[in-house]
Amino acid sequence: MRILVMAAGSHGDVAPYTGLGAHLRAAGHQVALAAPEAFGTMVTDSGLDFRPLPADPRANPSDSGGGRSGLLAKAAAFIDRLGDGLADAAVPGADLLLLATTTAPLGWHLAEAMDIPSLGVYLQPTLPTREFPPVVGTTRSLGRWGNRAAGALGQRVVDRLHADAARRLRSRLGLPARSQTAQRRARERANWPVLHGFSPTLVPRPADWREGLRVVGPWWPHVPADYRLPAEVEDFLQAGPPPVFIGFGSMAAGQGERLSALAVDALRRAGVRGILQSGWAGLAADGDDVLTVGELPHSDLFPRMAAAVHHAGAGTSAATLRAGIPSVPVPVLADQPFWAARLTHLGTAPPPIPHARLTAEHLAHAIRQAVEDPTHRTRAVAAAGLVAREDGADRVAEVVDRMC
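Request: output the structure for the sequence above.
Response:
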């Protein structure tokens, strides 16, 4: 079967689909991944065909500039560019579309025009539920009725953001006019299947979700079987006790100098060694007790860490559980406060430090809590044992085989 996976956004929004695609390819399918051009090498190195999307991940909605109104404006601009890109990526054809959270609202129209089935493969629990509020917004429960109502309102906001792009896309595809809300409701009535690639250990499946919504466990970024950490990293790891990882992924662009100084200060206050991952913030520091690295697989690096300070993206949060290490979550925006709160609730992390309130003193205190309180490590190791038995990619492959 020719499978086209469509994912858009930053590194954390795309990388897990390289592992999912590689798993499906190993099962005998022909797999292409449509993603922003910046990730072309990452995709082809995973053995997948690459179909570029024009959306620039460095200008995507994860950029926090301008507050909520600025975030919505950036999201609208991102969606506007995405529509034509998805249509172009679909031109070579496919027998099945796998749609990420960011591509599903427009991908539904493509599947209709191509007359092929589609399957949701989401990294976030975005569908309304009584059990928690929308993943983008407050982390405080609004009550069972309020949570569900807020989730429905969030769906309407998503529909409005996609309305113009969907209208233009349907016109290009020769489809009759249909509102974005009508398209979403039609998918709901048809019990459109969505498989969620996060751990039920972290977020159990809500009891009030419809039948077609499943939580199947994580799928992980592709890493070659013969991968080894760089020699300088191995040398640093062997030169002393396990260090603390600090990285903010695709967050905090342009804040590298301030955050680097803050991180080094916090590490020294806490009395621990550290590995800084440069990321989009551009973290960098030198010293006997600090090493700066570029993009490295969390699957190989995290098990060697004492704890991880991170922005609480979906993928990084899952990677800390997989490695069995405590977290120090520093959420910035979007779904990150949700995942940060989940880690704290699970007991694998001290209370989150919102990025806007981050200081060296607060960070040092949280690092000491994560490293010195044995409860966090014990619960992280217990979670790792559960996550090890979850194989989200295999569950997706089973559904794909049934669809075949």
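The radius of gyration is 21 Å.
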